[in-house]
Amino acid sequence: MLSGPQVATAHSESSCRKPFLQEVCLPFLLEAQNADGGWGHRAGLRSSVEPTCWALLALASLSNSGKLSKSARSAGGWLLQVQLQDGSWPSSQGQQEGSWVTALACLALHTNGVGPQAVARGVAWLCHAWPGEGGLWWRFRHWFLRKSVAVTQNYSFRGWSWTPGTCSWVEPTSYALILLRNLPGELHPRRATLRQRLGEAMLYDRMCPTGGWNCGNPLVYGVAGEPQVGPTVWALLALQDYRDRLANQKSLEWLEQAYEGLQGPGSVTLAHLCLETYGRPTPPLEPALQRFYAANQFFHSVPVMAWAVAALSPTRQWLRPARQGAAE
């Protein structure tokens, strides 16, 4: 199996002559897949849940050819093997505690029609995994120390954390919400509606004053937090059923302004993916990706290459609106 640099060299010349998706992105992903069916963060690294999920979602965005189906089945089998007994997935193989990647694993499996029972167990775990803040003791402590608290936010709005028992953060909350909006109602466990409403409220509460999101704190020591591309993209995609709200429009405007100055392939790809999903005009993505690839081969990153596949693909149903029109 080729390593990341070898894959990059093998396809760098063809990217100038043939479609970037078919001649660079897809071959990179297929050749970077490990023998066990998973992917590492870079080609040749040990399989891990996050890059495997991104790659599997990328394959789901493409036509269902025999070669892709075989690769997807192998990846789905690997994800099922590493699921923990409580229904969650660990951030790294061998760990025994569930984490934020459970939402990605459920989304990747559900999108590919694999392991419905495993998905149901994962969703149930997510809906019962509360973050550390929001409880009575947490709120009392925050009230008692309110004069010295550096971060101002509503702790009654709870989303999802990176690891159980810690604070809510924008990105894991966004991934869980994207999963829930992709699942039909009959697959939602009892607490799903409550968790979804609290998670959406938490995201709006954590939006930066200028629009957009950072990892989780909109205001620190009285200073407005700086938005970041990744959290902004995933929050907007999680909240796209409310696309006509002022908060969404304000954040989209920030993302459009930031787009012109982005210098990394991951940021450009995610921003393009989000703006296109919202129907905002964007310049063609392929020429920019070709330039990035010629300069740094995307740093041989499996997640970035998977995002590029999704962004360049004609279909990506897991990012489509759940219903038409705005919800208020």
What would you say this structure looks like, in words?
- By secondary structure, this protein is mainly α.
- Helix content is about 50%, strand content about 0%.
- A two-stranded antiparallel sheet has the order 1-2.
- Helix 5 runs parallel beside helix 8 (about 170-180), helix 10 packs antiparallel against helix 11 (about 245-260) and helix 12 packs parallel to helix 14 (about 300-310).
Write the layout of secondary structure elements.
Layout: H1 4-12, H2 20-32, H3 49-60, H4 66-82, H5 101-111, H6 116-128, H7 136-144, H8 170-182, H9 192-205, E1 219-220, E2 223-224, H10 229-238, H11 246-259, H12 265-277, H13 285-296, H14 302-312
Antiparallel strand pairs: 1-2
Helix pairs in contact: 1-2, 2-14, 3-4, 3-5, 3-14, 5-6, 5-8, 8-9, 8-10, 10-11, 10-12, 11-12, 12-13, 12-14
In brief:
The chain has 328 residues and is an all-alpha fold. It contains 14 helices and 2 strands; from the N terminus they run αααααααααββααααα.
Features:
328 residues, 14 helices, globular, disordered C terminus
Can you count the helices?
14
Content-based structural category: mainly alpha
Shape: globular
> What is the helix content?
40-55%
Strand order in the largest sheet: 1-2
Give the H and E element order. Answer: HHHHHHHHHEEHHHHH
Query: How many beta-strand segments?
Result: 2
| Radius of gyration from the alpha-carbon trace, in angstroms | 20 Å
| Beta-strand residue fraction | under 5%
Please, what is the average pLDDT? Answer: 86
* End-to-end distance: 51 Å
Oligomer: single chain
- Major β-sheet annotation: 2 strands, antiparallel
Low-confidence runs (pLDDT<50, min 5 residues)? Answer: 1-18, 323-328
